């Protein structure tokens, strides 16, 4: 076991709320959102596990995990029956653990095809009593079986969306996919919200896309928008979430607002669960 391997988990066990950070497009801010949302939730006292489902492992390294120290990864959870508690590693952020991924996971797509309960493998490992309040799933940039596992495991989806030309087409496609997942595998799944990322209010395209997306998705679009901010893109190279690297920067502040908006929606949900639809 390495220093990173966790020994001291908070004792009380609950089935956690599971949020998948999902968008089939790459480079839209999924990993950045997963890392900073997870950090912001742990900063307000939640016990959080970030599950890295991207073979690139950017969420793991972005939280300061050195690849050489990873003994077991999400691959072992999916294929070797390793309980998630066995693979989690501590991060520099109190109450935030990460279930790391490695390049091993790149074979998962093919191995899943012939696996038993192939759509439910992650759900089976996560929907158990765990010492976490929230599980954040960082999804790969595609709609493959790995992503399907995340959507089947999740209670809800947070969609990072970059304000670019084909954003709305991509979103419509994702909404249809979620509809199909709900019908076949996970009837309770819904879109928690859409977060606009790398927003630039001086760019007309950003503003136009924002209007379109708010028109299409209404209140599902969070008020908090994440501005394009160089401090946010620098942070991972120091192995730190932007919120820790430079809490005062506009990107970090936006992620803190996003987390509080998400928690507000979570509270509202407790009083009216039937009203949530994708
Ligand atoms: N708000 C932001 N401001 C500036 N750069 C950002 C911001 N969000 C993400 N980035 C950068 O954009 C790139 C893609 O982001 P990432 O979170 O890895 O996307 P994805 O996980 O969807 O592929 C990364 O280099 C990241 O540092
Ligand atoms: Mg990513």
Give a verbal description of the structure.
Pfam families: AAA_31. This is ParA family protein. InterPro entries: AAA_dom, DNA_Partitioning_ATPase, P-loop_NTPase. It is a single chain. The protein is α/β, with parallel strands linked by helices. It has one domain: Rossmann fold (3-Layer(aba) Sandwich). The protein has 12 helices and 7 strands. It has a 7-stranded mixed beta sheet, with helices on both faces. The N terminus is likely disordered. The site of adenosine-5'-diphosphate (ADP) has 17 residues, from α1 and α10.
Q: What's the CATH H-level superfamily name?
A: P-loop containing nucleotide triphosphate hydrolases
As a percent range, the share of helical residues equals 40-55%
CATH class: Alpha Beta
Q: How many beta strands in the DSSP annotation?
A: 7
CATH topology: Rossmann fold
Q: Structural class of the secondary elements?
A: alpha/beta
The backbone outline, from C-alpha atoms, is globular
What small molecules accompany the polymer chains?
A: adenosine-5'-diphosphate, magnesium ion
Q: Which stretches are low in confidence, meaning pLDDT under 50 for 5 or more residues running?
A: 1-7
Span of the ends, CA to CA = 42 Å
What does the radius of gyration come to?
Answer: 17 Å
- The CATH architecture comes to 3-Layer(aba) Sandwich
Characterize the biggest β-sheet. Answer: 7 strands, mixed
Protein name: ParA family protein
InterPro entries: AAA_dom, DNA_Partitioning_ATPase, P-loop_NTPase
Domain AAA: 17-190
